[in-house]
Amino acid sequence: MWLVIIQLKIGIILTFFSLLFAVASLAERKILARIQNRRGPNRVGPCGLFQPIADGIKMLIKEDVVPRKADRALHFLAPIVMVAPMVLLFGILPYGGGLTLVDLEVGLLFFFAVSSVSELAVFMAGWSSANKYSVFGAMRAIAQMVSYEVPLVLVAITPVMVAGSLSLVHMVEDQAGYAIGVIPNWFVLTPWGIVGFLLLFVTSLAEANRTPFDLPEGESELVAGHLTEYSGFKYALFFMGEYFGIFAGSGLAVALFLGGGGAPLPLLQWIPPYLWFFVKLVVLVGIVIWVRASLPRMRIDQLMDLCWKGLVPLAFVNLIAAAIWHYSGGGWQGWILAGGLLVGAYLMLNRVVLRSRCSWERKYYLAKS
Amino acid sequence: MERMASHYRKSGGRWLGSGILRGMGVTLKNWIGSYFDPSRLVTVCYPGERLPLPENSRSFPFLIYDGDDPEAGLRCVACRICEKECPPECIHIENERDENGKPRKRPAVFDIDISVCMSCQICVEVCPFDAIEMDQIYAISTNARFEPLRLHKEQLLKPNEYFRELSPTRSAAADARREAERAKQAKKKEAGKKG
Amino acid sequence: MTSTEEVESISEKSERLLNISMGPQHPSTHGVFRMKAVLDGETVVKLTPVFGYLHRNHEKLAERTSYLGNMPYTDRLDYFCSLTNNWAYALSVERLAGIEVPERAEYLRVITAELTRLQNHLAFLGFLLNDMGVWATVLIYGFREREKILDLFESLTGARMMCNYMRFGGCRCDVPDGWVEEAKRITDELPGVLDELEQLLTDNEIVVARTQGVGTVPGRKAINAGLTGPVLRASGVNYDVRKVDSYGVYDRFDFSVPLGSVGDCYDRFMLRLLEMRQSLNILKAALNELPSGPIINPKAKNRNLRPPAGEAYGRIESPKGELGFYLVSDKSGTPYRYRVRPPSLVNLTLLEDMCVGQKVADVVVILGSIDIILGEVDR
């Protein structure tokens, strides 16, 4: 019986995320199109709804090209190594409402351990392709992902500190209930939570190689980076891995800061928690797509600067702010102390970054003759 | 020396991230706007929906004939000016010849290789007889490289009514020119008769 | 342009240097341009531009074609700005043959040239941002507006890009009914679009970080290299052929020339935005003052033109810089010598100087900020 329930849960979760992948790939194209004053795919099925199926068939029947000098085994393995750990991540997300698969005591640790395997996959892909652009992309990917693990972990530690547990389920439970009866107790509604959430969002964008941090793929400079020599279904698998990475990252953000499956208002508590979880997750994925349509790509040195000079110090300050918040017992003292600390840190960062990187102030003469 | 009238100062964002947020606001406006404001959704679904072409739009040349019979109403007199002036030399004309081999003022062969034609309409400009005009046909790809893209006289000939429909302004001007020319010719003939 | 010391240090380090060939098939070389880059990690140590992949024998073709027959070939030089190419060529033939141009034709030339500048700069912004990696959004916003201008071109000249509109002594055809009103409407709409683009781009921290201090060209160096157009003016050199030569009727319009101060990619990018505003001023005045009269000098001969023996150089401020045509006539129906001074090619000569020491991602941004069209570079 226990086995059947577990398998049922696995089935539901896997189906949901596979479907979400299909929908998200369509939604990405649709939203990008809408932002760019276009209509997006609308040929296959009503409003182009069957486009993912057409894409899937196309990917399946495309020729699988492997460069002659490629390391065939690694070239074959890389897409699998990309997807497999991402699927594992779905197992520990706290969907709530009995859909949570496993409540690991060290859930967060498991999450970071498994998600960093994708770095290996990217490097395998780049190295095995025997293409200069691929290696270049892989090198960038390694530098980027290893660096961004640091602020990611630092940010994730703050809720751990406050909740006193590494278990994601426990963390969601800690955010249950409402202050003054209406405002949910989510971590994002605290000074350190806002900053933490934003930091987590930015770092998981970088972890998932999404714009503005899509340097490993860097289409305009590196052709397609580590994906240059991939085609057909292997390419689709990379694509899937990337999307699963976004889902998992968004899921983590929802669990850590957005109250997991908690309803935003007490009135709406009748909706099952896992639905809330998925709604929040989908909103975050929408924002990721919106960011992709709006922002240019950063340069590698700026990326590193942002990580080591911006995000890491801010994450440390956030850690301290969370501690202050915790020991001042929340309330207005907490807001003043922790909020003041974070605003101060932001101002410092503002000064340092704005002054050092660029002159910023420009004057243009309008010559009459 | 130089008189600097004024200048434009770009002071930039004071807060880190404000520029990014403002930019994202613009894209958000376009995203939401595309559902309500038709000016924010500018594309058309091409094969089904087609925008009307302006009257002056041009693609490839065609030959005009008057009346119903293409051979009888042919305006072209095989003067070969267009053949000479065509910059990429895509027009090929051969005169009709009578039994003695003397060329007649009619084209036996009038070919335009539209794979070479660059739609410059210089042939139209130099034609003294308003016999050649620019068509608006498009999406005329074929599955072979040479023969289907080489338009012969039969394919090129189109009635004057077609041209009137295509471009009322230009065809009216051409008709007026031809009418004036005809009147002049008639006058000349009359004068010649009298003389 | 690397000194011997640098070459030596390159060979010393060559163990860990990476040679990559960017182009001719590469997503952001704006056509079939190739850069042989030597990289030390991410940094560019040496960069050799290779062009000529789109060579079409333009100059020799012109020497074998009649003066009129070459007009449509000039469309295909810088295929984004066929009307300014037409104008520059018509101007030099008019100088060679001594042909006067009626006033209305001059106004129409100014109007079409400024519209060309607008649509070129709009597309430029999009391509530059595409090179920076924003996913086609700005490109499509730019193209959305460019489309309206191209529609104007189509209803005036019959073609959207290969206009073939100007003739020696005037223009080929008059404006159709309602064209001027439509042009005025678009001119009035464009400032709002420019505001939107400025809001989207000029303050964006990533755009600023990617462009400021990248590919800086000091004014003196820009003059020495013969750069023209927005690339030169971004370095603070006040040189605009519209002001210097005041060809056509440009002296009748009140407009100013925006000048940058640093000469980096950001200045080049901002200059285009500011230039578009100035173009709109010119357009507004020209559309309001458009005089009536003939559009082509009735005495001007286009077919079988045989200019007197001599030489002439006509130049205009094309959207990309100084576009000049040098013609030598030997009284025959074809030019004896025909030479184009393409702004894209001359502006490209400083590419290596701009790129060395920058990151590889900057190379595409610098290339994008120069605004080249391979049709004009390779001819």
**Please, what is the average pLDDT of chain B?**
83
Shape of chain B: elongated
Count of the separate structural domains of chain A: 2
Strand order of the largest sheet of chain A: 1-2
Outline the biggest β-sheet of chain B.
Answer: 3 strands, mixed
The total beta strand count of chain B reads 7
Structural class of chain B: alpha+beta
Helix tally of chain B equals: 6
SSE string of chain A, helices as H and strands as E: HHHHHHHEEHHHHHHE
Indicate the CATH architecture of the largest domain in chain B.
2-Layer Sandwich
Order of helices and strands of chain B: EHEHEEHEEHEHH
Query: Residue-averaged pLDDT of chain A, rounded?
Result: 83
3D shape of chain A? globular
Oligomer: heterotrimer
Range of helix content of chain A? 55-70%
Helix content of chain B: 25-40%
Q: Radius of gyration of chain B in whole Å, from Cα?
A: 27 Å
Q: For the largest beta sheet of chain B, what order do the strands appear in spatially?
A: 5-2-7
- Low-pLDDT runs of 5+ residues of chain B are 1-5
Largest sheet of chain A: 2 strands, antiparallel
Give Rg of chain A in angstroms.
Answer: 22 Å
Tell me what you see in this structure.
With 369 residues, chain A is mainly α. In chain A, 67% of the residues lie in helices and 3% in strands. Chain A has 2 domains: 1-61, no CATH class; 67-300, no CATH class. Chain A is built from 13 helices and 3 strands; from the N terminus they run αααααααββααααααβ. In chain A, helix 3 packs antiparallel against helix 5 (117-128), helix 6 packs parallel to helix 12 (300-327) and helix 10 crosses helix 11. The radius of gyration of chain A is 22 Å and the shape is globular. Chain B folds into 2 domains: 2-38; 61-194, 2-Layer Sandwich (Alpha-Beta Plaits). Chain B is 34% helix and 19% strand. Chain B contains 6 helices and 7 strands, in the order βαβαββαββαβαα. Chain B starts with a strand and ends with a helix. The relative contact order of chain B is 0.14. Chain C has helices at 4-13, 58-64, 71-75, 82-97, 103-132, 137-157, 179-201, 205-211, 219-224, 230-234, 241-244, 265-289, 343-348, 351-355, 360-370, 374-378; strands at residues 18-22, 34-40, 43-50, 166-167, 170-171, 257-259, 310-318, 321-329, 337-341. The two termini of chain C are 24 Å apart. Chains in contact: A-B, A-C, B-C. Chain A binds chain C through residues 32, 35-38, 132-133, 136, 211-212, 214-215, 218-221, 223, 292-302, 357-360, 362-369, and chain C through 18, 20, 22, 26-28, 42, 129-137, 140-141, 144, 200, 204, 206-210, 212-213, 236, 238, 243, 256-262, 266-267, 270-271, 274, 278, 359-364. Strand 3 (362-367) of chain A pairs antiparallel with strand 6 (257-259) of chain C.
